[in-house]
Every structure is written in C-alpha cells, then in structure tokens.
Amino acid sequence: MVNNSPWLDGTLYPDVQVPDRLETLADRVDYLARLCAAWDFGLLPGADTVAELRREGWRAAVEACRLLTSPSYHLLRRWHGLAPLPYLGQQISLIRDDPCLEWV
Fold first, then answer.
1. What's the rounded Cα separation, in Å, for the pair 97 and 76?
2. Going by C-beta distance under 8 Å and a sequence separation of 6 or more, which residues neighbour residue 65?
3. d(Cα 58, Cα 35) in Å, to the nearest integer?
4. CA-CA to 87 of 20 to 30 Å: which in 26, 67, 81, 97?
5. Residues in Cβ contact with 68 at an 8 Å cutoff, skipping those fewer than 6 apart
6. pTM for this one?
7. How far is CA 48 from the centre of its chain?
C-alpha cells in the first residue's frame, strides 16, 4: 500500500508496511500507541498529524487506547474533552516539586 495521507507518519511503522488508511478502531488505537511512544521519547508529530488527531473522529480511539503511562496520551484525552484518568508514569521529583510548574 502507498500512504496517501499527509498526516500519517510512516516512520512509526518500522516493523510493518505503512497502512494506506486507518479504517478500524484497532488500526487507530495502534497508530495512537505508536505515536504516543515516539512523542513521549521526544519525536514530535507534525502539524498535519496534530490537526488530524484533534478531529472528532479520533475520540473513540483516544478513549480506547488507555496509555496511562504516557504524558502525550493524557494530552490527547484533554484535547478531546475526555475525563481525566490517573497518570501512572514516572514523576520526576525535580519537575514535580518545581514551584514554577503551574505556569508551564
């Protein structure tokens, strides 16, 4: 398949052929898991990808994904107006205890 979607980041698929479309909920959840892992590692998504993921059609996939250890996932939940879930990832004390954190 040829990726015709400018927002779909093919570099997130080093292990399988890049899909042409993400039609099923499972396809979308898989994409979100790959994207959040890269994003949490510091590889930021492009503007087209962010615009696509903020569309209403992604809400069900964001809800289903449940990556509670991913800061990026929690941001996606916020963008979609979903109820907050507990963050189960690492809390770095240097950051957590920073008195300026509320202004970041």
1. 24
2. 29, 32, 33, 36, 73, 76
3. 13
4. 26
5. 85, 86, 87, 88, 89
6. 0.83
7. 13
From the CB of residue 65, how many other CB atoms can be counted at a distance below 10 Å? 22
Please classify residue 63 by burial: count the beta carbons closer than 10 Å to its beta carbon, then call 0-12 exposed, 13-18 middle and 19+ buried: middle
Q: What is the pLDDT of residues 49-86, one digit of tens each?
A: 999 999 999 999 999 999 999 999 999 999 999 999 99
Least confident of 19-28, 36-45, 93-102: 93-102
Q: Which tokens sit at 18? A: 């890049």
Task: Please state, in angstroms and rounded to a whole number, the distance separating the CA atoms of residues 13 and 31.
Answer: 9
* Amino acid at the residue 76: L
Measured torsion, CA atoms of residues 102, 76, 5, 30, in degrees rounded to the nearest 10: 130
State the amino acid at position 85 in one-letter form: L
Q: Cα separation of 29 and 98, whole Å? A: 34
- Residues composing the chain: 104
